[in-house]
C-alpha cells in the first residue's frame, strides 16, 4: 500500500517513516494483537500537532517495527543505539527531600507497567483487556493492610462512587482525541477501572493508556515518603500478579519497562509536585520552561499535558524516563 500522508510534518514519525521503511514494514501484522505500522502511526497521520506520533500495540511492535521505533526512541530519549536500561527503586539512595517550607500542595509519582502476554492499549484485544482486568482485580485482594483497598470497574459504576472519584480527581475519562485515534478507547468503558487504598494515597488505573498505571500520591512535599510507598506498591502488584498468573511485567533490557507510548519507556516514571510559583507566573512561562530545562524538569499547567494553565500553581516533573534510573529521576525532581 502507498505510504499515508503524515500531517504532523515536524514529528519524529515524519522524519523516520521513510518510503523504504514503509514498503518493508507496512505488510507486517504482529502476533500478539494483530497490530500494524499503519495503526502505530495513526496519530501522526490524523493530526498535525504530534511531536512523537507513534504508539506500540503490543511488545512485538517494538521488535517487528524496530527500524522505525529504534531511531525514534534514541532521538527522543537521547540515548545511543547500544544503551541498556537500569532500574533502581532503592529509596535509601535518595538524599534530602523537598524543602518543608516550599509551597507544595501535593506530590505524585506514577509509573506504567504491562503484564506479559497481553497486548498494549492501542492494540489489545477485547479478550486480553478483560484478562488484564480479571487478573488485577483478583491480585489486588491480596495487598497488605496499608495498600489494600477496593477496585472500582468503570462498567456499571454506581453514580455515587463515580462522583466521589471525580471529586478526588482520580477518574480518567474517555474522549481524548489522541487516545481515540490511537485505538485506546475501543470497547469503552469495558475492562477499565480504578483501584485505590483506604487512605487514597495508592492508586492503580487499569487499562487506560497503559495496562496498569501505578500511582503514589499525598498532600504536601514528602517526595521520599511517596517514592517509598510507590516502590513497595510496584513490588506488591508484581508479586500478586505473579502469584495469580505466573506472569511478570514486560521488561526489555534495552528499553526498560514496556509502555504503549515510547516516550514513557524505561522507568515510565513521572514524579511531580504541584507548587505555587507566583514569581514565575509574572516572569512568563517561557522563562520557567528555560529554567526547568536546565534542571531536567518539565513544567505543565495543573490540568495535564495539553490542558493549559490556571492561576500560578504549576506541575513540575522530571523530563527524562529512559537512560536514567528511578532513583536518579526522583532525586532530580526533588533537588530542582
What does this structure look like?
It is a single chain. The chain is 35% helix and 16% strand. The chain contains 13 helices and ten strands. α7 (126-139) packs across α10. The model is unreliable at 304-310 (pLDDT under 50).
Percent of residues in beta strands: 15-25%
The value of Rg in angstroms is 20 Å
**Percent helix range:** 25-40%
Spatial strand arrangement across the major sheet = 2-3-4-5-1-8-10-9
Gross morphology: globular
Tell me the total number of β-strands. 10
Contiguous runs where pLDDT drops below 50 for at least 5 residues: 304-310
Structural class of the helices, strands and pairings? alpha+beta
Mean pLDDT score, rounded?
90
Number of helices: 13
Largest sheet: 8 strands, antiparallel
Our measurement of the CA-to-CA distance between the termini, rounded to an integer number of angstroms, reads: 49 Å
List keywords for this structure.
globular; 336 residues; 8-stranded antiparallel beta sheet
Q: What is the topological layout?
A:
Blueprint (H helix, E strand, L loop, with lengths): L11 H5 L2 H7 L11 H4 L1 H5 L12 H6 L1 H12 L26 E10 L12 H14 L9 E5 L5 H9 L9 H5 L11 E5 L4 E5 L5 E8 L3 H23 L5 E2 L3 E2 L12 E7 L1 H6 L1 H10 L2 E4 L12 E6 L7 H10 L1
Antiparallel strand pairs: 1-5, 1-8, 2-3, 3-4, 4-5, 6-7, 8-10, 9-10
Helix pairs in contact: 7-10
Give a short overview.
This protein is α+β, with helices and mostly antiparallel strands. It contains 13 helices and ten strands. The protein is 35% helix and 16% strand.
Amino acid at each position: 500500500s502507498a505510504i499515508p500522508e503524515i500531517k504532523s510534518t515536524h514529528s519524529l514519525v515524519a522524519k523516520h517513516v521513510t518510503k523504504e521503511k514503509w514498503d518493508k514494514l507496512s505488510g507486517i501484522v504482529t502476533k500478539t494483537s494483530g497490530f500494524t505500522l499503519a495503526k502505530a502511526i495513526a496519530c501522526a497521520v490524523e493530526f498535525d500537532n504530534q511531536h512523537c506520533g507513534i504508539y506500540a500495540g503490543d511488545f512485538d511492535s517494538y521488535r517487528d517495527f524496530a527500524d522505525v521505533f529504534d531511531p525514534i526512541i534514541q532521538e527522543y530519549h537521547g540515548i545511543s543505539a547500544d544503551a541498556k536500561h537500569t532500574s533502581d527503586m532503592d529509596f535509601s539512595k535518595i538524599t534530602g527531600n523537598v524543602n518543608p517550607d516550599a509551597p507544595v500542595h501535593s506530590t505524585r509519582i506514577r509509573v506504567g507497567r504491562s503484564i506479559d502476554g497481553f497486548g498494549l492499549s492501542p492494540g489489545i484485544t477485547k479478550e486480553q483487556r478483560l484478562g488484564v482486568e480479571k487478573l488485577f482485580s483478583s491480585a489486588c485482594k491480596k495487598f497488605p493492610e496499608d495498600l489494600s483497598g477496593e477496585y472500582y470497574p468503570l462498567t456499571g459504576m454506581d453514580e455515587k462512587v463515580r462522583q466521589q472519584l471525580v471529586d478526588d480527581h482520580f477518574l480518567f475519562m474517555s474522549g481524548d482525541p489522541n487516545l481515540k485515534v490511537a485505538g485506546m478507547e475501543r470497547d469503552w468503558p469495558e475492562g477499565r477501572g480504578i483501584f485505590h487504598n483506604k487512605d487514597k494515597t495508592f492508586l492503580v488505573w487499569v487499562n487506560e493508556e497503559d495496562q496498569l498505571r501505578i500511582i503514589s500520591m499525598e498532600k504536601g512535599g514528602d517526595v521520599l515518603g511517596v517514592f517509598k510507598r510507590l516502590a513497595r506498591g510496584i513490588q506488591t502488584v508484581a508479586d500478586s500478579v505473579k502469584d495469580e498468573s505466573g506472569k511478570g511485567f514486560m521488561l526489555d533490557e534495552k528499553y526498560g519497562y514496556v509502555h504503549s507510548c515510547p516516550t514513557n519507556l524505561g522507568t515510565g516514571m513521572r514524579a511531580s509536585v504541584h507548587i505555587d510559583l507566583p514569581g514565575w507566573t509574572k516572569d512568563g512561562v517561557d522563562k520557567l520552561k528555560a529554567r526547568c530545562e536546565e534542571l531536567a524538569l518539565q513544567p505543565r499547567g495543573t490540568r495535564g499535558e495539553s490542558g493549559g494553565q490556571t492561576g500560578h500553581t504549576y506541575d513540575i516533573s522530571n523530563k527524562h524516563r529512559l537512560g536514567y534510573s528511578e532513583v536518579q529521576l526522583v532525586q532530580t525532581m526533588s533537588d530542582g
